[in-house]
Amino acid sequence: MIISPDTQREQRIPPGQSQTVKWPVLDANGTPPIDLSKWRLDIFGLVEREVSLSWEDFLALPRAQVFADFHCVTRWSRLDNTWGGVLVSTLMELAGGVKPEAKFVSALGYDYGWTTNLPIADFLSADALVAIDHDGIALAPEHGGPARLIVPQLYAWKSAKWLGGLELLAEDKPGFWERNGYHNHGDPWKEERFGY
Fold it and tell me: Per the CATH hierarchy, to which homologous superfamily does domain 39-190 belong?
């Protein structure tokens, strides 16, 4: 199991946050219907080889667990989460590696064209993964199932629900919330909530 570095801080609740044991459900447009027989995870852009995985392909990849905290920009933090899925590093190996000019990633969701952007360094962190279960239970659709990105060191909106694609880019490409007032980076320890 990979232990996220943030869980080893003396103070685990970032500034302006309150701890919750619940897991509130928040999204922009509601839960999209996803047919697993048609589900794909496309990895494209500045990788050595583009990859398109079916659900069966994805389930056949090596699995990992990440123990991490989860911080929502709406001021709640849920500690001690165990995420199961496929590490981002495994997916990038499958794609033959990241090209040197890749500086950003755009994560694409199945929910009506929703995207979010991340710097490549955050995306490639050792504790980043595409999760399919949470605390040993398959991710419920309202929490981003069947698969969502998890990047523990950033606010939760950067951990795109209903993941369908990862585009590696040379230039930054702000996503839905970033274009609508949220901070472009989203570090909870710096309270990077809003961009204005």
Answer: Oxidoreductase, molybdopterin-binding domain (3.90.420.10)
